[in-house]
Each structure stands twice: as structure tokens, then as C-alpha cells.
Design brief:
This protein has two helices and nine strands. The protein is mainly beta and about 220 residues long. The protein has one domain: Beta Barrel (Sortase, Chain: A). Strand 6 and strand 7 form a beta hairpin. It is globular, with a radius of gyration of 16 Å.
Amino acid sequence: MSGQETPTGHGRFLTGVAWALLLVGLWLWGSEITDVRGGVSEPTNGDVAAVGRPFGVELPDAHEPLGAARPQRIEVPSLKVRAPVLTRGLDQDGAIDPPPFEQAGSVGWYGGGTRPGAVGTSLFVGHVDTETRPAVFYDLSAARPGEKVLVTRDDGSVAEFTVDDVRVIGRDRFDAKKAYGPHKEGRAELRLITCGGTFDRETRTYSANVVVSAYLTGVGP
């Protein structure tokens, strides 16, 4: 990527992700959530690429959900991600308002939803790139089941999540209920979301979203 770093980079993020997050807003406003199979791959069809659970990877048991606390920092050690968390709401279109363009190294958490570690699905969103450089979730599609996501919370605890599913979901096959609904009822889960697929320079849009799913497996001080 080249050129001056301008708000155009922010537009790249919005056009690639806001369409999906608009569905999140609608889902949050009243769609009934049903169970979704966790850690099971669907066939790759050009629209959905699912990593699923690779052979030889033993996933730990789920930890009992924690009390509600706000996230302060998120880490994905395998991807060298260590970033502050910004609380975000919904914009006028019903999409999760992403972090400001000037803070592309931060991760946004939807503060109107589930707090990470509590029962339900906590939603986090981050930029994939800007006009001039990679952003916080540039390597998110490289995440694999069994890897850890650590969320430092404002009660002093660190909630440890284990990745159980990684998907690149095309626009025309996107299903908000499957992407964001719980894989298993009663668990504490989270989703990490960014742009994916290919970037069309003419329309300035991404063709897909990367959705990484994880569930609570431990807690530390």
C-alpha cells in the first residue's frame, strides 16, 4: 500500500466491514439466537473458507463464565497482537462504530453487548490496514484453533479464551446469526472481526470478513 495516510483508509475499513456489522446491529436488536455448531468446518465454496478444528488439536474444556467486567486490553500472542480496547456503540445505520481511523492500532468492543467472560458473545472489531500500513488485525486470518486470546478486564482479571473456529465469510453468504450466535449455549464466547478476502480498488470494498471465534477456558490475575 502506498500514498498519503488519509481518511480514505477509514473508508476502506467501513466498506469492508460495516455491511456485516449492520447485520450485527439488527441481530442485537431482537433476532432470536439459535445454536451453531462449534469447531466444525463447512466446505470451502469460494464464499466461506472455514479452518474448523484441525486434526491433532485438543481443545480444552470451557471455563465457568465470569462476572461482568469491561475489557481494557486484548492480546493474541500467536499473532503478536497487544492492543488497548476502546468501548464503541452503534452508529446511525445500526453498525458497530469502529475505532477512529487515527487509532487503527486499537480494538473496538461493542459496549452495548456482552462483556468478555460473561455468558454470551462479546464482539470485538479492528482495522485490517490503512492506506500506508497494516493495522491491528492485519494477520487475523492466520489465527488457528487452539491459539489463545487474552482479555485484561477492569476488575484486574485476565480472561483466557481459546480459538475454536476461523472463517472468511463472503458478502453474499453472510449469516449474522451463524457468525455471531453462540456455538454452545451457556458459554462465555467472543468474536474478533475484520476485513477479509480481496480488495477491489475500483469500488474500494473488501469481498469478505474474517470472523475468529473463541470461548472462555481460563482466568488469571
